[in-house]
Design goal:
- The complex is a heterodimer.
- Chain A is mainly α.
- Chain A contains 19 helices and no strands.
- In chain A, helix 6 crosses helix 8 and helix 12 crosses helix 13.
- The radius of gyration of chain A is 24 Å and the shape is globular.
- Chain B is an alpha/beta fold.
- Chain B has a 5-stranded parallel sheet. In chain B, strands 12-11-14-15 form a 4-stranded antiparallel sheet, with no helix packed on it. Chain B has a 3-stranded antiparallel sheet with strand order 4-5-6.
- The longest helix of chain B is centred in the first third of the chain and has 27 residues.
- The chains are: A mainly alpha, B alpha/beta.
- Chains A and B meet through helix 17 and helix 19 of A and helix 1 and helix 8 of B.
């Protein structure tokens, strides 16, 4: 079920109410049942996959602990056994991910290669339905295995608690990709602490409303413009395609951050704090800064489990650049089994590599930025990321290049009033984006809006809440024929 | 103390939400010309008990005049018909009226255009909202809305302002809407008139429009009435209405108001009548189709209709009189034919003719528009047609002298009028005429 659906609006209050009245010892069980129910609403069969991933990684954690406790073997053998266990866990989990997400991609490319070489091939693909959230929970489960291997945490012996860590419904299908020191620790303490907290509930609900605002008022409205232009790009030139790509930057940001905020808000109501996944990304002053602010959980995952093991920046400049290219190529592929996502990732790698080389070649030192410098860098970074978003949004690589060709061969082709939105829609979108900018700017200045709201008078607090709620209710785009529209990142 | 404070703050928030919901409804819903708003206000504020209630679509509120039925029934009758009123709305209105009245009899109109609706496929809920928007807040209203559509529509159903949210940015419109709603005319539920129609009280809307000549044109198709025409949803609600009336000791009757014979003769109307009768078989409830009424008892011509489907004020007076006399036992069953075909057979010497122009697609669809003249006949006769086109670009042209050909074709981008005269072969007199804008 989607967060922006009637089903969730019924599901969440029921789950929360029962959660608070349940005895402490049963809270974990209740959340686990709710999480599996939540996931099975998508497709009951794929609950088996998440269960398999859970059991494999849970078992690998216990196996690693057991190996560590074996006194009758040499340390070399211990390391070997531990590596085998980790490899087994990684291969099986990534294997499942590869089959369901990448098999058809690889097969299609192999067929294309054989065809290019002159061979006649009968193309067959698996046509498997992509299980929702598989990329997220697979990475989350794998991080547990590696953390236990590294000795960063102790293996969780309670299967229920561990299963909840993998399947916790607010963050199950689109992140944030939680790490064991944060989420698993909180789950372990569920039975010990008092979870009813009025501030948490109010704060969590407020965060959810803000998330719905981002998703329904901004993202889904911007999507109308983007879809209109991208699906009929031959009718537009530079202005149309550039404008829609600009809106896509906010569509993807608000869609993803909106989802994350709803997830964080829901978790907060339940007394669990999830990590922030976005930190005002379009205020970044360079691409490296952008990736410290965008999809923070994925960036930190790749940093900890791929980039650093590859050597990071510690093995010379060339290796440093290569590591960046590898990480971003994989990151691109993680986002989608299609070459346009890989190109998107590689573009970001290229931007970062250029930045690093500039620094090395021209010896630029990091220094505090002046206001004008900050604006220039922020705008430049936005333009670079927005250019890359064109590849991310395109249906495939051919579509991306066609869009670019269309942009630069028809600079002035533009049909006023043909972007799929009425003038009132553009007004609402513009106003919403201004509000988003103000909120992000305040966050950038480390002003916590909810904390500020808490200290205001009752009438003001109510005015803000009611305005936000009614803005979502009245101006939210509820999709065609009022069915809830999918979050973008669900395809991952 | 803390708990009480928090409890009150939640209640306050809910109350504020309610107030804003009503405020946005006031600002954004344009019901300045709504009959239903006035009708439901009258329903709720009737001082005298409503003994007889009429329910149904526009076929009901255009055809039954309570001013006439009050006299003949000698009691207080009320017409709670609304546009395209589906059976779930009829059921909700029945329960609503029964809350504050001791209903003795209920007559539910069963126009075939509403009995084949599948409720889960609804995308346009106008016919539902016409009723629900003016019902008092109640469990009945909530249940009606929750069952009327899939969950994706619930926001629009319960948050009325949501349906017209774009108007929040149209300040001139907002100002006009709010200003009108603050006038005594609106606040005191004054009668609405316009487009040749007038709200005449107790739910009845009378029209002064008449059909032009005897020719009728239309550019839409009537539904095909095959087996299983009546939808499962309609059957469910017919049964609910029956059960409710039996439980509350209300005499229930289903009926159909008269329509133009030209429309009914173009479809298998007897199939519909049979299906309704089969549905009610064994329930003890009866169905009376006034399209089967003897024309000598209920004589309705083009001058009694405002369009193909609805009686005008003249026709309503005639029909209400016959309807009321029949149900007060002043007329017996002999006024009805056994079937619609039997009625048509009795009219074969005086056929009613009409012409429909139905747009079709031919090979040159990119450059030309084509209509097929479809005669609506109450008796089998051979016709020939003269076709004149009054083109805005090319002027008046007689494109066909009298012959059997029934195809009219014009250039796609042209505008104007098509005039068709039809006469029975061998007869010089014009039997039917149709004029249609294109």
């Amino acid at each position: 079920m989607l967060f922006n659906s009637m089903d969730f609006l019924i599901f969440f209050p029921i789950v929360t109410l029962i959660y608070f009245v349940m005895p402490k010892k049963l809270k974990t069980v209740w959340l686990l049942i709710s999480s599996y129910y939540f996931y099975m609403c998508w497709n009951p069969k794929y609950a088996v996959l998440i269960a398999v991933s859970t059991v494999i990684t849970y078992g690998s954690g216990l196996a690693l602990t057991h190996v560590c406790g074996m006194k009758n073997i040499s340390s070399d053998k211990q390391v070997f056994y531990k590596k085998c266990i980790v490899a087994g866990s990684v291969i099986s989990n990534l294997g499942i991910l590869a089959v369901f997400k990448y098999a058809d991609f690889f097969l299609t490319n192999i067929y294309a290669l054989f065809s290019a070489m002159g061979f006649t091939v009968t193309e067959r693909t698996l046509d498997l339905l992509l299980p929702v959230g598989i990329s997220f929970y697979t990475f989350q489960a794998l991080s547990y295995t590696v953390d236990v291997y590294r000795g960063d945490i102790r293996a969780e012996k309670n299967l229920i608690r561990y299963a909840l860590f993998v399947s916790f419904f607010p963050q199950l299908v689109a992140g944030p990709i939680e790490r064991t020191p944060n989420l698993l620790t909180q789950i372990q303490e569920l039975e010990k602490k008092t979870l009813w907290n009025w501030d948490n509930i109010c704060g969590g609900l407020f965060l959810m409303i803000w998330g719905f605002f981002q998703k329904l008022v901004i993202a889904d409205r911007a999507a109308i413009v983007v879809n209109t232009v991208y699906n009929h790009y031959t009718e537009y030139g530079f202005i149309g395609i550039a404008l829609s790509t600009f809106f896509f930057a906010f569509q993807v940001y608000c869609d993803f951050d909106g989802y994350t905020n709803i997830a964080r808000g829901a978790a907060q109501v339940l007394g669990i704090r999830l990590m922030k996944n976005f930190k005002q990304p379009y205020f970044a002053v360079n691409i490296r800064d952008f990736w410290r602010r965008w999809h923070i959980s994925l960036t930190s995952w790749f940093t900890d489990y791929l980039y650093i093991p590859l050597g990071g920046s510690r093995r010379g400049t060339l290796r440093h650049l290569l590591n960046i290219v590898i990480v971003f190529a994989v990151s691109g592929l993680w986002h989608g089994a299609s070459w346009n996502f890989v190109v998107w990732g590689l573009l970001h790698a290229a931007f970062q590599c250029v930045g690093i080389l500039r620094q090395k070649l021209f010896g630029q030192k990091e220094k505090p930025l002046s206001g004008s410098a900050r604006i220039r860098k922020t705008v430049t970074t936005f333009l670079l990321t927005d250019f890359a978003w064109l590849f991310f949004r395109a249906d495939n690589l051919n579509h991306a290049f066609s869009l670019l060709r269309q942009m630069f061969s028809n600079i002035w082709l533009y049909a006023p009033g043909s972007f799929g939105l009425e003038p009132s829609g553009f007004t609402i979108l513009t106003a919403a984006l201004i509000l988003l900018f103000v909120v992000d700017y305040l966050h950038e200045k480390n002003i916590d809006l909810f904390e500020q709201l808490k200290v205001q008078e009752l009438w003001f607090r109510y005015a803000v809440c009611l305005t936000l709620i009614w803005t979502v209710i009245l101006f939210g785009v509820y999709g065609t024929a009022y069915t809830s529209s999918q979050f973008i990142y669900f395809q991952f | 103390m803390k708990f009480l404070k928090r409890f009150c703050s939640v209640l306050l928030l809910l109350a504020a939400m309610w107030i804003f919901n009503e405020l946005f409804r006031f600002l954004l819903i344009d019901d300045r010309a709504s009959y239903t708003r006035i009708m439901l206000h009258e329903l709720y504020s009737q001082e005298e008990n409503i003994d007889i209630l009429f329910l149904g679509s526009s076929h009901c509120f255009h055809s039954l005049d309570p001013a006439v039925s009050d006299v003949i029934f000698d009691t207080n009758t009320f017409n709670a018909g609304t546009s395209l009123q589906p059976l779930d709305a009829s059921y909700a209105l029945l329960k609503e009226a029964d809350k504050t009245n001791d209903l003795k009899e209920v007559y539910v109109e069963l126009y075939y255009g509403i009995t084949n609706e599948i409720y889960e496929n609804r995308t346009d809920l106008t016919s539902v909202y016409l009723v629900s928007d003016y019902m008092k807040h109640s469990v009945n209203r909530a249940a009606f809305l929750l069952n009327a559509s899939s969950p994706g529509y619930y926001v629009n159903s319960f948050v009325l302002g949501r349906r017209n949210y774009e108007k929040l940015l149209d300040f001139p419109w907002l100002f006009e809407n709010v200003t009108f709603k603050r006038t005594p005319f609106y606040r005191t539920f004054q009668y609405v008139s316009g487009r040749g129609e007038e709200y005449l009280g107790k739910g009845f809307v009378g029209s002064t429009i008449t059909m032009e000549n005897s020719g009728i044109y239309c550019d839409y198709s009537e539904p095909v009435i095959g087996d299983g025409y009546i939808s499962a949803d309609s059957r469910t609600y017919i049964q609910k209405i029956i059960d409710y009336c039996k439980k509350h000791d209300i005499k229930l009757t289903f009926y159909t108001a008269p329509m133009e014979d030209l429309v009914l003769s173009a479809i298998d109307y007897d199939s519909y009548v049979r299906q309704i009768n089969a549905l009610l078989d064994g329930t003890g409830i009866f169905y009376y189709d006034f399209n089967l009424c003897d024309p000598e008892i209920l004589s309705l011509g083009a001058a009694d209709f405002m369009d193909l489907n609805h009686l005008n004020r003249n026709g309503a007076e005639k029909f209400t009189t016959v309807f009321s006399r029949y149900f007060t036992d002043a007329l017996d069953d002999s006024i009805f034919y056994e079937s619609y075909d039997a009625k048509l057979a009795s009219m074969k010497d005086t056929p009613v003719l009409g012409l429909m122009l139905l747009e079709t697609e031919k090979e040159d669809v990119d450059t030309r528009r084509t209509w097929e003249i479809t005669p609506a006949l109450t008796a089998p006769v051979e016709l020939e047609y003269e076709i004149t086109v009054f083109s805005d670009s090319f002027g008046e042209m007689i494109v066909q002298e009298y012959n059997e050909s029934r195809v009219v074709s014009i250039e796609r981008n042209d505008t104007g009028r098509i005039q068709v005269f039809a006469r029975i072969k061998g007869n010089e007199e014009i039997a039917a005429k149709a004029v249609m804008k294109y």
